[in-house]
Amino acid sequence: MIDTRLKVFRSVATLLSFTKAANELFISQPAISKHIQELEKEYGVQLFDRIGNRIQLTRAGQLMLDHACKIINAYQNLDFDMKKLTEKSGGELRIGASTTISQYVLPELIAEFRKQYPDIRLTLLSGNSHEIEDALAAGRIDLGMVEGIKRQPTFKYTPFMKDELVAFVHCSNPLAQQDEISLEFLKQIPIVLRELGSGTLDVIQKALQKNGIDLSDLNIEMNLGTTEGIKHFVEHSLCMGIISVRAISRSIYEQVFKVLEIEDLKMEREFLFVEKRGETAKLQQTFKRFITKGYNV
Predict the structure, then answer these.
(1) Is the Cβ–Cβ distance between 260 and 178 less than 8 Å?
(2) Among candidates 267, 226, 224, which has minimal Cα distance to 245?
(3) Which of 3, 203, 251, 261 is packed most tightly, with the most Cβ within 10 A?
């Protein structure tokens, strides 16, 4: 079995908080402190500097974190390979997914994945694309799934599904009488969009820029941090929203919302796996293969 102290240390080191680590691992804060103290005593070093209410890694702590991540990854591969000998697949995989993916793509897929691989423990962190990439860089997740168009050179991106953004209004909105609007008319309509850092907003911004339009040219009523928030806002206002068609497909069928075409504006994108460059753990490979089967990108 892997040294529990290393998992505890990794959690504290990536979250930089004893309290958050305790919540993440479902153990008491005194137990967290005890594990860290044991590691410090064993190696005769200080792993964290305490600065007021904050902590930060010492040089020894950073070295410990580098090795801890490699050891935990190696153990996950060992666990996977050994269980595979008995036709089982086990281990722990920490996934981070941007809001649209976590809400409208993953629930059904993860349910099916759990049926096929019941011994693999999955945890899911949700946030916007920027937050998911930050969590990956910090080592808080093993695999990210994002929806933006921006790329960081330290990461590897692999597309797994296509998606389209659509403009929509509530069916009671006078605009619902139209099927298509012009780009010039778009500038006049009160609109609600996702927040800065969202992959959805990145796609909208790039599509508009191709047509010589900046976000500042739009009549933005407000920015909201969730797709569901945008749906509820549009439902109770005369505003237009722009979100993934996957998020409103049922509401369109139920005639709650009406999609409006925008002349000469295509807002297409790909959902992407994002990983640190280097060797991919076998658990990640298994999950990626499962998700991508049946989808052509």
Answers:
(1) yes
(2) 267
(3) 203
